[in-house]
Structure formats: C-alpha cells, structure tokens
Amino acid sequence: MSTAEPAAATTVDRILDACAEQAVDVGLRRVTMEDVARRAGLARVTLYAHFPSKRAVLDATFAREVERFNAYVARVVERFDDPGERIVQTFVRTCRGLRANRIVGRALRSDPAEFLALMAGDSPVMADAIGWCADHLRAAVAATPYEAMDADATAEVLTRLAQSLLISPPSGFDLDSDEGAAAVARAWILPGVHASMAAVEP
C-alpha cells in the first residue's frame, strides 16, 4: 500500500466530518462547498479534487452515515435467534435509529425537500440501504423456512416504508418506542414476508 492512500482517506474523512457538522449547524440547503472546505481546513481546490459538487459530498456524507448505522443495526439484530424477530428488529432499529440521527433530524426539520432528494429514486444512498438490508435479511434467515422469501423485494419494501414513515411521521402509529415500532412490523411487515415466502413455494 502506498503512503498516499492513508493520507487520501484521512482527507476524505475530514471532508465528510466537516460536511456532517455543517449540515447539522445550518441545514442541508445552506451547506456550501466553500464552508465545507473552510471547516475541514482545506483549500477549495483540494475539496473539488475529491468531490466535484455539493451533491457528491452530501451523497458521500449520507452514505457514510448509512454504513455506520447499518453496522449498529447488525450488532443489535444478531442478538435475536428467531428469524422473524430479526426482521421485526431490523425495522425497529431502522425507524428508531434514523429518527434519532442528528443529521437526519436536522434535515427533516429544516430541509425536508433536500433530504428527500438524497433518498429518492435510485439515489446512491437508497441503493446502498436497500442492498445492505437485502444482504442482512439473507444472512438472518439462512437455513430457516424464511429463506424462501424474496429478500430483494422485502428489503426494498422495508427500506422504502421506513423512509416514508421517517419523512412523514404518521399519527396513527407509535414509532417513538421499541414496542410501538415492533407492533407495526409484526402487523404490516411480517405478513408481507410470509406472502413472499408463499409465492415461491412449489
């Protein structure tokens, strides 16, 4: 490994740290490349050498948040032996954790349209989240009857439902407690998983 690689990684981390702090302080819409460079202690030319636009640095910042968050969810969910409960707890931790995230919380309060743009359609952040969820579901249900489910479709439903509930919190569901979020998952997520399993049974 060349000595330049760790230095480059450190520079990217500084940029993403600065972008995250700036997003919390001023909101996504008001983040500028100039402010990120200044906060990271870098020249603008260095910032642009790593990220060509504000959207690129925001995408990378959120992708890192998602990666860290996913590692947290995996650590919690692996404590449960029952595969159905693992699916429930994946939903619980996703909803509860995202709602508590300081960057997400700030974005939802001040810049919901900017946040939606980062999470909409085939955005890198959403694609990474769905891919991780699918991989996690496959690992959670391996060698169990749940293995027959369509993990990709289930992951997309889980992720997009969590996204929707996050952006437009419902008044009829309790997502502010583990018990409430788990009740939602058992009522609405697991039946869909069971239907997915039945659809592929011979």
Describe the structure concisely for a colleague.
This protein has helices at residues 4-26, 33-40, 44-50, 54-77, 83-100, 102-110, 112-119, 124-141, 151-167, 178-200. The chain has 202 residues and is mainly alpha-helical.
Describe this structure as you would to a colleague.
With 202 residues, this protein is an all-alpha fold. The protein has a single domain, classed as Tetracycline Repressor, domain 2 (Orthogonal Bundle). The chain contains 10 helices and no strands. The chain has helices at 4-26, 33-40, 44-50, 54-77, 83-100, 102-110, 112-119, 124-141, 151-167, 178-200. Helix 1 packs across helix 6 (102-110). It is elongated and about 55 Å long. This is Transcriptional regulator TetR family. Residues 32-51 bind DNA.
The overall average pLDDT, rounded, is 82
The residue ranges in which pLDDT falls below 50 over 5 or more consecutive positions are 1-6
What is the helix content? over 70%
Could you say what the CATH architecture is?
Orthogonal Bundle
Q: What structural class should be given to the helix and strand makeup?
A: mainly alpha
How many domains is the backbone divided into?
1
Q: Note the total helix count.
A: 10
CATH class assignment: Mainly Alpha
Number of strands: 0
What Rg do the Cα atoms give?
Answer: 19 Å
> Approximately how much beta-strand content do the residues carry?
under 5%
CATH topology: Tetracycline Repressor, domain 2
What does the main sheet amount to? none
Order of helices and strands: HHHHHHHHHH
Q: What is the CA-CA span between the terminal residues?
A: 51 Å
State the shape: elongated
